[in-house]
Each structure stands twice: as structure tokens, then as C-alpha cells.
Task: inverse folding
């Protein structure tokens, strides 16, 4: 039996759908909440495809896949989160949007419900301060594709209690992940180290040192990275990369985090990577 019985996931994008899937796979009753019905339908398809893929590889049985799917309910009504033991928020990286959602959740959820944000860049301490339960608030940073990537970066805000951190570390393990606890500083550990690498790869292209293909080959063949840095940047989304570089630059006030001008220009042109069909590479379908 998982340590928490009911989990609500807010935001049915790529990350939210993945988080709902792994929660349901571990036996937790899961509600996936989004404002858009079309987004929820897309998430349902993504989850079904992922479960089928895992069943065809033998990672789980057809029956386990069906049970997992049955444990997830999809709703546009945020008040359905009221009985949850944990709410994981995975909405767009904008503090004003997150603020509105956390204010609503704080008013409607059980007083002892735990709150976790999947933010990749916004301070957990700052988000926790929106709620009246900062000791129950924590960061749970998952990685894309969530069903595959083993890491959950667990970020303790300034007031997160030891009991909350212990519960979330335990839950992450029950989800089949390996949690790593870090402190609340800009970019945490993952994006503080990853994003400057991707940004520097972009500088190499911008300065004409090498083509995107050549840079990616260096990392795939020389360092055994599964994806080269420019393929990975396209996979993450160039708008997300730019946003995180700006958070690092603002947070540390150090010019070493300046975003590459090519990155800024591509985002301004709507070249956001895979999701827009073009980034450092072109994508079809
Ligand atoms: N659901 C279920 N299974 C999936 C899946 C999904 N959505 N996507 C891939 N898989 C499985 C495949 O079935 C396959 O399983 P197998 O090993 O049993 O055959 C395995 O994962 C590998 O997939 P593929 O064979 O299709 O393709 P690749 O070998 O190229 O792997 C990848 C794809 C796992 C995405 C790999 O390229 C990779 O690890 N890339 C790096 C991803 C990464 O760095 N993610 C982190 C991004 S940073 C982030 O998310 C944080 C944010 O804050 C920015």
C-alpha cells in the first residue's frame, strides 16, 4: 500500500500526464485536473500510449496497464482535489498562474494535505509562502519522459518540515523513482548544471564553432549522452530553456548565466523545438 492514498495532479501537459501515470502505476488513486477538456483528452491518449508501450516491452502486464488507467480520473473541476492527501502542481511556469491555483487549493484542500510543485525554476520558498502551510510544501521535480527517467529532485523550501520531506522521499521511492534531496536555490541542482551546458552548446553554434549535428555528436559519442545538448534543448523546449537561463541570471546576478542571443532570437521567432515543429532541428508530425 502506498504511503499516500489519493493524489491530485494539476496540469495535464506532458509532465502532469507523466506524473499521474507513475502515481497510478504505484497503486495511488489519482485525479488529473486541467481547465481544458481537450488537454485532458490528449493526456489520456498519452498515458494510454505510454502504458501500451510498456506492456509491449514487458515492463508491465496488459492487466497492470488497465488497472493503472482505471485508477486515473480526469476532471476540469479543481474542487475534486479536496479529498487528496497530496497535490502535485505541474502547470505552466508562470508565478501568477501558480499563485492563483495554490490560493484556491489552500482554501479547499484538507489542512494536512501535502503540497508539491513540479516547478523547474521558481523558488519553492516563494511558492510555499502563497499557502498557509509552508511546512507542508515541497518541490517534486520530475524529468521528461516521466515514466522513464528515474530521478525526482526533492526541493526543501525554507520552512518545509522534516516530516514532509520524509513522506515525499518515501512516496517518490514508491513511485519507482530515486529521490535526491536538494536545497532551494535557483535552478536547484539539475537545471543549474544542465542549462548552462545547453546554453554553451548554443554559443558554439552561434559563434560558428560547429553545426548542431556536430555538437550533438561530440556529446553522444564522446560522453555517452543519450541525446546531444541541442536535441535535448529541442526536446525540453527552447522557451523553457530561455526561461530557466533568465531565472539563473536574475537569481545569481552573474553574467555567466546570460542566455545565448541565438536562443533568444529563436524563441522570438517561435522556433521552440519539437513542440513547434522546429528548433535546432526540424520535426514532422
Ligand atoms: N513512456 C513509456 N516508455 C517510454 C517513453 C514513454 N513516454 N518514452 C520512451 N520510453 C521507453 C521506450 O519504450 C524504451 O524502452 P526499452 O528500453 O524497454 O526498449 C526506452 O524508453 C528508450 O526509448 P526509445 O528506444 O524510444 O528511444 P531512446 O533510446 O532514444 O530513448 C529517451 C529516449 C529515454 C528520451 C532518451 O533519449 C533519453 O534519456 N534522453 C534524455 C532525456 C533527458 O535528459 N530528460 C531530462 C530533460 S530535463 C527535464 O525534464 C527537466 C526540466 O526541468 C527541464
Result:
Amino acid at each position: 500500500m502506498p504511503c499516500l492514498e489519493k493524489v491530485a495532479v494539476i496540469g495535464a501537459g506532458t509532465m502532469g500526464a507523466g506524473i499521474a501515470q507513475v502515481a497510478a502505476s504505484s497503486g495511488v488513486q489519482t485525479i488529473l485536473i486541467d481547465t481544458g477538456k481537450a488537454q485532458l483528452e490528449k493526456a489520456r491518449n498519452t498515458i494510454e500510449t505510454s502504458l501500451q508501450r510498456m506492456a509491449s516491452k514487458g515492463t508491465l502486464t496488459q492487466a497492470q496497464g488497465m488497472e493503472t488507467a482505471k485508477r486515473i480520473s480526469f476532471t476540469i473541476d479543481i474542487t475534486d482535489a479536496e479529498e487528496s492527501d497530496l497535490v502535485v502542481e505541474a502547470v505552466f511556469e508562470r508565478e501568477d498562474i501558480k499563485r492563483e491555483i495554490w490560493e484556491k487549493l489552500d482554501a479547499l484542500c484538507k489542512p494536512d494535505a501535502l503540497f508539491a510543485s513540479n516547478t523547474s525554476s521558481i523558488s519553492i520558498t516563494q511558492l510555499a509562502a502563497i499557502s498557509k502551510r509552508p511546512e507542508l510544501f515541497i518541490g517534486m521535480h520530475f524529468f521528461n519522459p516521466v515514466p522513464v527517467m528515474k530521478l525526482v529532485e526533492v526541493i526543501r523550501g525554507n520552512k518545509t518540515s522534516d516530516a514532509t520531506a520524509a513522506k515525499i522521499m518515501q512516496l517518490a521511492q514508491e513511485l519507482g523513482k530515486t529521490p535526491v534531496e536538494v536545497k532551494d536555490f535557483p535552478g536547484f541542482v539539475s537545471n543549474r548544471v544542465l542549462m548552462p551546458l545547453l546554453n554553451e552548446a548554443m554559443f558554439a553554434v552561434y559563434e560558428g564553432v560547429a553545426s548542431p549535428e556536430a555538437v550533438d555528436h561530440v556529446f553522444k559519442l564522446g560522453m555517452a549522452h543519450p541525446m546531444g545538448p541541442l536535441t535535448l534543448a529541442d526536446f525540453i523546449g527552447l522557451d523553457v530553456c530561455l526561461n530557466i537561463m533568465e531565472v539563473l541570471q536574475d537569481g545569481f546576478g552573474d553574467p555567466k548565466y546570460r542566455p545565448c542571443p541565438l536562443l533568444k532570437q529563436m524563441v522570438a521567432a517561435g522556433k521552440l523545438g519539437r513542440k513547434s515543429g522546429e528548433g535546432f532541428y526540424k520535426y514532422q508530425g
